[in-house]
Design a protein that fits this description.
By secondary structure, the chain is of the alpha+beta class. The chain is built from 20 helices and 21 strands.
């Protein structure tokens, strides 16, 4: 064999050996890969699935929106609008720390402060970057495609009526939990229950697929209130104008439906816009008509007259001697503006005689007078259920001194809320029956409670009509075409060391139409300044304006149309 051929054979054998070695290596590698695959896919499957889920499957909250609050006619007072809150996983976002200034610009945040929040939260997996963005802003943030940054759908409360119904409706916090007003009182009814779902996310934290529903969201229930937004607006507008005109400290108006006890309007000044959280302060958002108390002054006299008639010792025409224009009770001298002489109970109301009211109050048994006042609801919470409601102040008759009973006759030594006073007047308008007050619309009137006899209620209403006649103290409360029954009140405000001599509550409370009352209303103006401060000068015109428009809007038939010469009645003509 030649040397060349032998060399060729050796080369071929080496090549074959190397090839076999390479093939063997590939076979062994392939076998190892197959074995590894079998191990991973068969024996280690659960572990790998768990690791994959831990990295890409997340549980997300399904936000539930809060129920709407509407007026009695379905007009929205509070609704929930969709918003997005942007959140981040600080550990993941730290990988793109150089882009934090860019993120801060889109969120309209200070870049340095945002950086501090992220670095301080490296041990957390979730922090909010900014809450309640509109969907377009949230899309701009997500378009940055930053690692660990995502958004979450939430709902934000919006109040279409703004200041007009703010004290009644209240507001929620950023987590949509009721904090004040009806939002708080009916939070259990309005609040929804969030759901949950499992989603698949990519490495950028973006949702790729909804994998499973864990729990369905339950949205909150709607609340239909007793408020008539039309009456609410006109009461708000009229009260605000009066507060500005008389440069008063504050004021309230309450309008009740006599036939059902529903609160049709309740406004206060100063007010606030619940859509602007910077205006949230207790001084502005408390509902003064329910939480604040005041001494009612002469506006309590119709209740004193009712107690007198209920005692059986008096009639509307019964005479009381008020001469010489004052009466001395203990160390206190109680005076009238002039000596009215011998006058009837009706005249005592019409002329607002403190001396007459004092003598009537002192002539009654303390327990009988106290019982009548408590029957009217003084000294007790109403059934409104409103958070922070005050019960007022009416001390037990066992603790009365003679001067206590005397001053009660003209509205001192007793404190009420505007709502309590309105409820008491509604009892007079309801022929002695009173419905529990309600802030919720009622399909059927609730059960009534008899406070005084029908004869007494009708008699007192007739006496109260004289208060609104020309020349009487409440003449400015008159309403064209309607008979009005009411009473003025002017009381000094209590101050350290006694009563102030230049700070007053101006009050008017009344009913209309007096022949068959449909509405009871109370107006209180706190600390009017200037020359006018009497209830008949400051509060009565507000009552007149509110009641005029309310009766028209509710289409209540007039009961005092002027007679024509031929005996017919003037008919209201629409133009």
């Amino acid at each position: 064999m030649s040397r060349a051929k032998k060399t060729q054979q050796q080369t071929a054998r080496r090549f074959t050996s190397r090839l076999s070695l390479v093939v063997a290596i590939f076979v062994v590698a392939a076998g190892a890969l197959c074995a590894r695959a079998v191990h991973l896919q068969v024996f280690n499957k659960d572990f790998l699935n768990h690791q994959a889920d831990a990295r890409h499957l997340r549980t997300e909250k399904i936000s539930a929106h809060r129920g709407a609050i509407t007026d009695r006619n379905g007009e929205p007072l509070a609704i929930s609008t969709p918003v997005d809150s942007v959140w981040a996983n600080p550990k993941e976002l730290a990988a793109a720390v150089d882009r934090v200034p860019e993120l801060a610009r889109v969120l309209d945040l200070d870049a340095e402060l945002l950086m501090r929040r992220i670095t301080r939260s490296m041990n957390k997996e979730f922090i909010y970057l900014k809450r309640h963005l509109n969907p377009e802003q949230a899309r701009q943030v997500l378009a940055l495609k930053l690692p660990g940054v995502s958004s979450q759908r939430e709902y934000r409360r919006y109040y279409p009526a703004g200041e007009v119904a703010s004290h009644l409706v209240g507001f929620t916090n950023i987590d949509d939990d009721g904090q004040e007003g009806l939002e708080l009182a009916f939070n259990h009814w309005l609040a929804g229950e969030s759901g949950a779902k499992r989603v698949l996310k990519d490495r950028m934290g973006r949702s790729v697929e909804n994998v499973a529903s864990i729990k369905s969201a339950r949205h909150g229930k709607d609340l239909r209130t007793s408020i008539d937004l039309r009456l609410q607006y006109l009461a708000y507008r009229t009260l605000k104008a009066s507060i500005q005109q008389h440069k008063a400290e504050s004021g309230s108006v309450v309008v009740l439906d006599v036939k059902t006890g529903e609160i049709l309007a309740m406004v206060n000044q100063p007010s606030y816009n619940p859509n602007d959280r910077s205006q949230y302060s207790a001084e502005r958002y408390r509902n003064r008509a329910i939480t604040d108390i005041f001494e009612p002054g002469s506006s309590i006299k119709p209740l004193i007259m009712a107690a007198a008639l209920e005692s059986g010792r008096y009639r509307a025409s019964s005479m009381v001697d008020t001469s010489p224009g004052y009466v001395v009770v203990g160390p206190k001298k109680i005076e009238d503006t002039r000596n009215f002489g011998r006058v009837s109970l009706t005249t005592i109301l019409a002329r607002s005689s403190n001396v007459g009211a004092t003598k009537v109050a002192l002539s009654l048994e303390p327990d009988q007078l106290w019982r009548t006042m408590t029957n009217f609801g003084l000294g007790a919470l109403t059934s409104s259920g409103f958070p922070g409601e005050s019960a007022g102040l009416l001390t037990h008759y066992n603790d009365w001194r003679k001067i206590s009973q005397a001053t009660l006759g003209y509205g001192y030594g007793v404190s009420v809320t505007p709502l309590q006073l309105a409820q008491a007047y509604a009892a007079l308008g309801g022929d002695g029956n009173v419905h529990p007050v309600s802030l919720v619309h009622l399909d059927q009137p609730s059960s009534v409670e008899r406070v005084i006899s029908e004869d007494t209620a009708v008699a007192v209403r007739g006496m109260m009509e004289q208060v609104v006649q020309p020349g009487a103290t409440g003449a400015a409360a008159g309403v064209d075409g309607y008979r009005v029954a009411g009473k003025t009140g002017t009381s000094w405000k209590f101050a350290p060391g006694g009563y102030s001599e230049d700070k007053y509550f101006s009050v008017f409370a009344g009913l209309a139409p007096a022949s068959d009352p449909q509405l009871a209303a109370v107006v209180i103006i706190d600390e009017p300044t200037g020359e006018l401060y009497y209830g008949g000068e400051v509060a009565a015109p507000v009552f007149s304006s509110v009641m005029t428009e309310s009766l028209r809007l509710l289409a209540v038939p007039p009961d005092a149309l002027p007679a024509l010469e031929n005996g017919g009645l003037v008919q209201a003509m629409s133009q």
